[in-house]
Design brief:
By secondary structure, this protein is an alpha/beta fold. It is built from 19 helices and 14 strands. α9 crosses α10.
Length: 446
């Protein structure tokens, strides 16, 4: 299978797409053509590993990793992803819990998969690959954990200083020497712009061999398709052929786009609803506004504070512009006040504690029409463990949230980070200080 740029650059194979992260013309890699499946193609595939193998095998054709797919998937899906029904007498809904991995957030799936792939591809490289990752909360911690102490890979995490929770900041800054954590004086969009600027700089690219682990990298999206495939197949099989709809909290649109990909490949997925916070750019675009990047707004659902979602480029490339998108997806926008009320309500109604991001999705579900809830089955995507947001959640439910074991381990580790300005010169200086290459290791050295 080949992967082309959304902006028209020549196609490459999977290995090059994973290593490059972003196309030479600045576009994002998408498959030349998505494979399509019949539900019968998954007969006999019961576990998420089995389903992932069927789903992803076509993407690995002509890849050096084709023979390693089984072991890559075993490394990726080494924690449970349960789908837990909600006791709601007004509809049929369940939570898909994506927060049981090493950093208790859904990003652990994509980060683990990408690490498993790149470490195999880069095991004999003369110069380490440097992973640049901009994060508004969970991505950086998941990527750092996935690549921590991996040989041949360096990670640079850029996060907006003062705009992530204390526990999130800890998990972004507690890793070994191959991880550089940078607190950027700016927003997530500033961090993302720095990543793109660095990757477009030929001199820096030659010295550090940049790649990306944000959802701009196709290696993040492929494994995320698998939990939509597995949960929809399980529901379809157990409900005599009913296709579940999905409600996905979204910021940079990567997780939502993975659901779109799974549906376009033929998986039994019904309606798709995107839940966003006060950063309304997606909702406004679908309502008729021009797509214009804007400054992000800080909210309680900080990992969704994105003013220029990168994966809209992929979504428009696959499905079309606003008119076409309006026929395929719906969007709910949720305020901070709504998030707080929803956390209280879900706790009171279902004895379930949710994070602020998951609250946007449960809000969307509970504010659908009664007819929509009753006539469709819904899987609500729960993206992070609420213990990561204890300062928000605990006062609302008047309870202390026990730390899960992975988070306890992370919180016990010492931290280190460097504060930088939101400009390429500051990033370059920090890279030099942390990863200065000996003359013998410089590109072209003899």
């Amino acid at each position: 299978m080949k992967f082309r740029s959304t902006r028209g650059a020549a196609s490459v194979n999977l290995d090059e797409a994973l290593i490059s992260g972003i196309a030479l013309d600045g576009g994002l890699f998408v498959p030349d053509a998505l494979p399509t499946f019949d539900i019968a193609d998954f007969d006999g595939a019961e576990s998420i590993l089995d389903i992932a193998n069927v789903l992803l095998t076509p993407f690995f054709e002509d890849s050096m990793l084709a023979g390693s797919l089984d072991s890559i998937l075993a490394e990726t899906f080494n924690f449970p992803i349960p789908v837990t029904p909600l006791p709601d007498d007004r509809g049929n809904a369940a939570l898909m819990e994506l927060f049981h991995g090493p950093t208790v957030a859904f990003k652990d799936v994509g980060a683990g998969f990408l690490a498993a792939c790149l470490c195999r591809l880069e095991e004999n490289a003369a110069i380490p690959l440097t992973i640049l990752v901009a994060t508004s909360g969970d991505t950086g911690g998941a990527v750092a954990a996935a690549f921590d102490q991996r040989p041949g890979i360096r990670v640079v995490v850029l996060f907006p200083e003062g705009r992530v929770s204390a526990r999130q900041a800890h998990q972004l800054t507690c890793w070994s020497d191959n991880v550089l954590s940078l607190a950027v004086r700016g927003s997530f969009d500033d961090c993302q712009a720095l990543v793109k600027a660095a990757m477009a700089d030929d001199k820096l690219n030659e010295e550090y061999r940049f790649s990306s682990a944000n959802s701009i990298n196709i290696g993040r999206l492929l494994p995320q398709c698998t939990y939509y495939a597995a949960s929809s197949l399980q529901h379809f099989r157990n409900s005599a052929g009913r296709k579940p709809g999905f409600i996905v909290p979204t910021g940079n649109l990567g997780n939502a786009f993975a659901c779109v990909m799974a549906r376009e490949m033929g998986l039994p997925i019904g309606d798709l609803v995107l839940a966003t916070n006060a950063n309304r750019i997606i909702a406004d675009y679908l309502a008729g506004s021009e797509w214009l990047p804007r400054d992000s707004i800080a909210t309680l659902a900080s990992a969704m504070d994105v003013g220029n979602p990168s994966n809209m480029e992929r979504l428009r490339n696959l499905l079309g512009d606003a008119n076409e998108l309006n026929e395929r997806i719906r969007v709910f926008t949720v305020s901070d006040t709504d998030i707080e009320e929803q956390i209280r309500r879900v706790h009171a109604d279902f004895n379930t504690v949710i994070c602020p991001h998951t609250a946007t999705a449960t809000y969307a579900y509970q504010h659908m029409s009664q007819e929509t809830r009753e006539n469709s089955d819904w899987i609500i995507v729960a993206t992070a463990h609420p213990a990561k947001f204890e300062l928000i959640v605990e006062p609302l439910i008047d309870e202390e949230i026990p730390l899960p074991a992975p988070l306890l381990k992370i919180q016990s580790q010492p931290t280190r980070s460097v504060a930088i300005s939101a400009d390429l010169g500051s990033l370059e200086n920090s890279l030099h200080d942390q990863f200065h290459l000996d003359a013998s290791e410089q590109p072209g050295a003899k």
